[in-house]
Amino acid sequence: MLASIPTPVLGQTLRDNGIPVDDATAAGLVALLSPAATMVGGFSEGELALLNTTSQTFDPLGSNTAVDIDPLGATTTNTFEVGYNGIFDNRVLLAVDAYYTNKADFVGPLRAESPFVLVPTLSADLLGGLTQAITDNAILKGQLDLLGLPPSAVAGLIVQLAGSGLPDDQTPVAVVEAMENAVAPGNTPEAFLSYRNFGTVDYLGADVSVQVLATDEISLFANMSVVSDDFFDASELGEEAESGLNLSLNAPRFKFKVGGRYAKRNSVSVGFSARFTDGFPILSGPYVGDLPSYFLVDISAGYDFGAVVPGLRLDAGVQNVADDRHREFIGSPEIGRVGMARLTYSFQ
To answer: Domains in the chain, start-ordered, CATH in brackets?
Structure first.
């Protein structure tokens, strides 16, 4: 590092720090501090950690031994469902479904599986190692004694000059790779990303829908879906908390839709609906985040030209009338007001 600093700049830096040396003496000290002349040791063993792509931090592996990843297996899903469908007074249609789901060995989100090497005590180790290495170099120590500089002061100055260039406790110094993926000297190693099977979850859910035929022209409807949970952390999955493994159903715990329609044969029809989707967390590959709730209103209208041209019909509709700009999945574009028109002809 010192060799990369121009000699005049280094000499001035030393003088600014109270070390009275000229540029030539500064260059001589740098030569004596080179790795060939002064071997620095005493560094702590690195710690293995995995990159947590959610928090963008490194989670300790808990062991300095890399662990093989088993091949992906099949996810097993067992669902038990009961339901009811009925018609009351030829006007009310009701459907109710309830279910229990057990899911095991599901495929988790894409994770960085290559262990990184962290050395949290690198700065302190470098200070101690440099002090000892300078002390052991008789020629260098003699030169410093003439300048009245103890080895610890010089070591401290070198660490200070390194400054932010030294890795902190969250900056890796190396990455562990399989021998088959070893890179040639001078090339940048690559982190390995992979999916894995893990965990078992249980959850309950229900779907309810009702349609009311108020008259021959007017109908009303409502439907609702609910699940008992939409996010499972490591403890719920039966995994160690340090694993950082989480599962999201990538679907809302609760949503509903209500609406109505008026339709007269061979004439006009109008309709409306309102729908609410509860916010939910998303963990799907690189798409990670919390999706906010949204409430939308849609309207539609149409005309059946059957009395004039049998089979001809015109329909138009506007979704999200209030132009509530929202996303329906992390990574998807925002959706605002959408209008559509359709002209259809059905052959008789």
So the answer is: 2-47+119-171 (no CATH), 72-110+195-345 (2.40.170.20)
